[in-house]
Amino acid sequence: MLALFSLLIIIVLSIIVVRIGAIALELTGLSPEVASFQAQSAFSGVGFTTQESEVIVSHPVRRKIIRILILLGGAGITSSIATLVLTFVGQSGRNIIIRGALLLAGIGIIYLFAKSKYIYKIMKKIIVKALEKYTSVRIYDYEQMLGLSKGYTISRITVREDSWLSGRQLKELKLEGALILAIYRKVNGEEKYIGAPSGNTVIQAGDVLICYSRQEVSKALSQRCKGLKGDDEHRQKVEEEQQLSKIREMQGGFD
Hints:
alpha+beta
């Protein structure tokens, strides 16, 4: 029975390690889904050649977190296999069934605890405080900083040939309340990254724009086509943005 309980403890510790790694990756700016997936991949030793993996490897803090997860994962998986063998080796048929049932029950309970949102929130608070105190991982709440819960969004807009955006300068988009954080552009068959482009940068067909704006603004820009109708819509949106700016100024004066 000692081996069985040891196995369950190893599983619990493995889940905690993966959770710590996922939260640490999340605090470097990754989304919760991506951070959790990459932490599980690193701990289990399953590699994926994806753009997300390249982004993580090129980041010094994320790379360090992944390296630690890989080292701990190797030890955890080896220990789990060894303990699993010791749990069942040399046992009679009846004992194997009993231990198998206990193992499944234990894993089921652990799974329920691991999926509990309440427990996750408690664990996250503890892990965040520990990381702030004992590590150099910077703690940023990007959702709050960028106002993503207040109607703003970061979106990817692919510029089509017939898009109104094609051939326009970025400063025209700013008049509508949209800020282009970066551009992915194909140059001679290779993808080029243009970070923090200036207002005079001209948008080209095929560009992928990383846009920060209100949700309705990015949606309108991505769907707008060339022509008089698109120009009229642009003028209308500029007027709306100017009116919103005046309202914000008035509200700021009353604060």
